[in-house]
Every structure is written in structure tokens, then in C-alpha cells.
Design a protein that fits this description.
heterodimer; A: MetI-like fold; 14 helices; B: Rossmann fold; 2 domains; 6-stranded mixed β-sheet; 7 helices; 10 strands; 22% strand
Chain lengths: 305, 246
């Protein structure tokens, strides 16, 4: 087969098959990007050597982080037990506490904002401007929010709570307004025909209608906040990341850091599993929906009975 | 404030449809009075629901006027109009009690709604309405777990608690069996008789709607006419009953 014939057949194949054409474009694009970023295979090979050295220093993990008392912990640990005052337990507890506070505060702040941002509940000018506010809060990742709040309120868990809350509001707010926009329009029309103001339409019709999705999103956000709680600690905003940073800089005790990472991994997996089971109650099986107890908020016992 | 003796709903030379489109119905002339059940029938997609939503103030008329409870419908007194949409508009995954007490929101004070604290009268009205529709044992049941007929009763109980001057019910009999439909009809009749409610019922079944409504209108072509009146333009729509070609 001559070159000309081969090229012609190749061109024919590429032009006739859109998948091939798109695939070819993507491959060319990736090569250009890799070239532009100066990424070479040699750097990867060099990195493998560093990984080997890091592995040698980190292995085996030093689980003394679970038994030694962290006298340098902030805030100071007052328990008698060394285990309870160990860096791993204090750090993990702080991370979970920060995640709980940030999720709850974030949910409280994001829900009214989400109702204001939902186009089926608010006038377009309000929905659009609220969306801009939520987008602005999402622009900065939680790590940058943590840096800002460490400067504002100093090192410690407060900076972490504030940073995670800000990010939670931006992120959860977006998920929530999408859930609110997805509710059936008929209950909302019933409310509007009754002449109810917008906030009552949202509070008593749209939010309860979307409550399963909202609760599921809140649990997802809690998982996310636990995972990211380790990152914000690296800049001094509390949590297990702060203790990791203590071992990394300046001591470079990778074996202890690895032990903390393993502890974090098991806690995150456990929380994921618990959260998944709880969320299943709200999202699985139309016929077997478990209803959240909104009724207890509105109807007192004598009506229910 | 409702002026006694005046109709609760009045369409005057109203053109109904969506902005930018050709009107679905033109020159609508219709009134619904207190204590009266008026039926509206016609084939699918002809504009029955659109007319009902216009009466509810959810859609504006293209021309002409619609007055609800002696005011412009978009500015009707709070709680004066009640709506039972085709799919009932119940808040899903919430209890029967929750859905029924929502009818009381229109008359609740700002403090009561802000704190979610209904007063005794609201709670009593809710309990009475649930009892009247025969769902006392289902008060805490999620509406998703109820049958179609039971869900319709919940929507009617919500309307009873709201006690509007004008109730708009869209296909509230749906495809119910005869016995359940009869129960729902009895409930509607009691609302009109005992509460003096003006009720506009949309039903695709012309035979059924004539059995319980005081007056019946039908949509044919682009016109709204009394049920027994022959339309001017017979060719613009399908006949309701198959006619003998001979």
C-alpha cells in the first residue's frame, strides 16, 4: 500500500468517525499542554527516587502519636489519660468538632441564601445577586479562607470553624438552591394561590418538599468538611492538619505524619460508611421514604394525637 | 373584604392563554357564586387547567378581566382563593397533619408562622378537617404512603382548614373508582353547602361533572359555553359524544 493511499484512507477514517476525530483532537491538546507545562518523563523518574527515600523515612509508621501525651497541644489537654491527650486523638477530635460546627453554621446560613437564590422562589434580580454572593464564597478554597481567618483571629480552631463555614455556605448554598429549584411546582402554586409571602412559600412548602435532598447534602458536606479539616490545619487553623504540620516542620518526622494519615483514613472511612447508611434512609426507594420529622416543628402533640 | 351577593369569580370578555401565543380561549364570560359548584369540562389540552390557573391569579389574562372575591384576582384577600391542582400539590414525604395544617397559614399571624406555633383554633380546625375526611388514623402517616383517593381527601381537608371563599379544583376526581369519587363529591358538596364556598371544578368527564355540579361549562374550540349550548363552530373541535353518521 502506497503512502498516499494510506494517508487518504486514514483521513477518510478520521473524517467519517466523529469519535476518532474528537479523540485525535484531545490527544493533540494533551501533548501541547504537557509540553507547555514543561513536564518530562525524566522528572517522573527522578520523583520515583524521592518517593523511595520518603517511603524509607515514613515506614514503618510511628503509632506513638496515639500513646504519647501532646503537652504542646492547643488548646491544652487536661485529661489524665495519655491516649485521650495524644496528638492523633486531639487532632482528630478537633477536626470532627470543626466539621460539625462548620456544617451546622453553614447550613443555618446557606438555607435562607439558597431560598433567595432559587429562581422559583425569588424574583430574578434577587436570585441572580444571591447567586453571585454564593459564587464569590466558593471562589476561594477552604485553605485560603483558613489563611485569611488565621490572620484575622489568630492560630487555632476558631479560624478553622470560620474558614470551613464560609466555604460550606458557598458550596452547600449552590447544592441547596438546585434542590429547591427541582421541587414540584404544584405545592408552590397552592401556596401562591393562598396569597402567602415568598418566605412562607419557601419555609413551609419548598424546603420541606426538598428536605430529603437537603439533609442528604448536609451529611455529604459534613464528610467533606472532615476530609478538608486536615488541610486547613496545615496553615494553623486547628484540627489534625495542625499536628501533622508540627511533625513536618521543622522535624520532618514522616513516620509520625504517616501514622496520623492512617488514623485520619480510618476515621474518614468510618464517617463515610455511617453517613452513607444515614443518607440511604433519605434517598433510596420511593415507597420506603423515611420522612424527616418536620411535622414536630409545626404540629404540636395534641394535633398529632 | 367580600361583598355579599356579588359573584366570587367573574370572567368578563377575558382572553386566556400564554403571552406571545394565540389565545387558547377567547371572550370568556363566566361567574361562580357563593355556595355554588360550577363544573368545567372539555377535551384534554383544550385549556381547562390554564383557565383555572388564570382564576387562581397564577397567569394573567391576555385581555379582559378576571375578578376574584370582588377584587382583581392577583390582589385577592390573603387566603380567599384555594387551589387543589391536578396532582394535588401536597408536600411530599410530610405527614397528613403537616399538609392539612398548611391551610391555616393564610390566616396565621407573622409571629405564629415565624415560630411555627399554630394556635388552638388552627389545631382544632386541622383535627376536625382530618376527621371530616375520615383520615384520623392517618394523621402522622406520610402522604406518599396513602392511596390516590386518600391523598385527594388530604387536599380537600387542607382546603377545609383554609376555608377560602373560592375553591378551584383541577381534576380532583381523577381516575377514581365510583365509590371513592362519590365520597369526594360529597365532601365538595358539604364545602359548598356548609361553608358557602364557591367551587369551580375542572373534570374531563362530562357525564360525571353534570351529576354533582349546579352549572356546567364546556370548552369547545376557543370558546367557553354552557354545557347544553351548541357551539357556533362545530368543526373546530372533536364532538364530545360520538354522533350517529346516519
Amino acid at each position: 500500500m502506497s503512502d498516499t493511499t494510506f494517508q487518504a484512507r486514514l483521513m477518510q477514517l478520521v473524517t467519517r468517525r466523529p469519535v476518532l476525530r474528537i479523540g485525535l483532537i484531545i490527544v493533540v491538546l494533551l501533548i501541547l499542554i504537557i509540553n507547555h507545562l514543561g513536564i518530562t518523563l525524566w522528572k517522573l523518574v527522578e520523583g520515583a527516587g524521592n518517593l523511595k527515600r520518603l517511603g524509607a523515612e515514613a515506614l514503618p509508621p510511628d503509632f506513638s502519636v496515639l500513646t504519647e501525651r501532646a503537652g504542646w497541644a492547643y488548646p491544652a489537654c487536661t485529661y489524665e489519660s495519655d491516649f485521650l491527650c495524644s496528638p492523633a486523638v486531639i487532632g482528630m477530635t478537633q477536626t470532627i468538632e470543626i466539621a460539625i460546627l462548620a456544617t451546622v453554621f453553614g447550613m443555618i446560613l446557606s438555607l435562607p441564601l439558597a431560598a433567595m437564590a432559587a429562581t422559583n422562589l425569588s424574583p430574578p434580580w434577587l436570585a441572580q445577586s444571591t447567586r453571585q454572593v454564593l459564587a464569590a464564597m466558593r471562589v476561594l478554597p477552604s485553605l485560603i479562607w483558613a489563611l485569611i481567618f488565621v490572620i484575622v483571629v489568630g492560630i487555632g480552631p476558631l479560624a478553622g470553624v470560620l474558614a470551613m463555614t464560609m466555604y460550606t455556605v458557598g458550596y452547600l448554598g449552590k447544592l441547596q438552591y438546585e434542590a429547591l429549584e427541582g421541587v414540584s411546582k404544584e405545592p408552590l402554586e397552592v401556596a401562591r394561590t393562598m396569597g402567602l409571602p415568598r418566605w412562607q412559600v419557601a419555609r413551609f412548602f419548598a424546603i420541606p418538599e426538598a428536605s430529603n435532598a437537603l439533609l442528604s447534602q448536609m451529611l455529604f458536606m459534613f464528610e467533606y468538611n472532615v476530609r478538608h479539616g486536615s488541610v486547613i490545619g496545615l496553615v494553623g487553623a486547628g484540627g489534625i492538619g495542625w499536628y501533622m504540620n508540627h511533625y513536618l516542620s521543622p522535624f520532618q518526622q514522616y513516620d509520625k505524619v504517616l501514622a496520623l494519615i492512617i488514623v485520619l483514613y480510618f476515621v474518614v472511612v468510618a464517617i463515610d460508611q455511617i453517613s452513607l447508611r444515614v443518607r440511604r434512609n433519605f434517598i433510596d426507594g420511593d415507597a420506603e421514604y423515611r420522612k424527616p420529622r418536620w411535622r414536630d416543628v409545626l404540629i404540636t402533640r395534641d394535633v398529632q394525637g | 373584604m367580600v361583598v355579599e351577593g356579588l359573584p366570587r369569580l367573574r370572567f368578563s370578555k377575558a382572553s386566556i392563554g400564554f403571552v406571545g401565543d394565540t389565545p387558547l380561549i377567547v371572550d370568556v364570560e363566566m361567574t361562580v357564586n357563593a355556595g355554588e359548584i360550577v363544573g368545567l369540562t372539555g377535551r384534554s389540552g383544550i385549556g381547562k387547567t390554564t383557565l383555572l390557573r388564570t382564576a387562581a391569579g397564577l397567569i394573567s389574562t391576555l385581555s379582559g378581566t378576571v375578578e376574584c372575591c370582588c377584587t382583581e384576582s392577583t390582589r385577592a384577600e390573603r387566603g380567599a382563593i384555594g387551589l387543589i391542582p391536578q396532582r394535588l400539590g401536597l408536600v411530599q414525604h410530610q405527614s397528613v397533619g403537616y399538609n392539612v395544617i398548611l391551610g391555616a397559614l393564610a390566616k396565621a399571624s407573622l409571629l405564629q408562622t415565624a415560630l411555627s406555633l399554630p394556635n388552638r383554633a388552627m389545631r382544632d380546625a386541622t383535627r376536625d378537617a382530618i376527621e371530616a375526611v375520615g383520615l384520623s388514623d392517618k394523621t402522622l402517616e406520610s402522604v406518599n404512603r396513602l392511596s390516590g383517593g386518600q391523598q385527594r381527601r388530604v387536599a380537600i381537608a387542607r382546603a377545609m382548614v383554609q376555608n377560602p371563599q373560592l375553591l378551584l379544583a383541577d381534576e380532583c376526581l381523577g381516575e377514581l373508582d365510583a365509590e371513592t369519587a362519590r365520597e369526594i363529591i360529597d365532601l365538595l358538596r358539604s364545602l359548598a353547602r356548609d361553608h358557602g364556598m364557591a367551587i369551580l371544578v375542572v373534570d374531563h368527564n362530562p357525564v360525571r361533572v353534570r351529576t354533582f355540579c349546579d352549572r356546567v361549562f364546556q370548552l369547545r374550540g376557543h370558546s367557553l359555553i354552557p354545557f347544553d349550548e351548541e357551539p357556533a363552530d362545530r368543526g373546530s373541535t372533536l364532538p364530545l359524544v360520538k354522533e350517529d353518521s346516519a
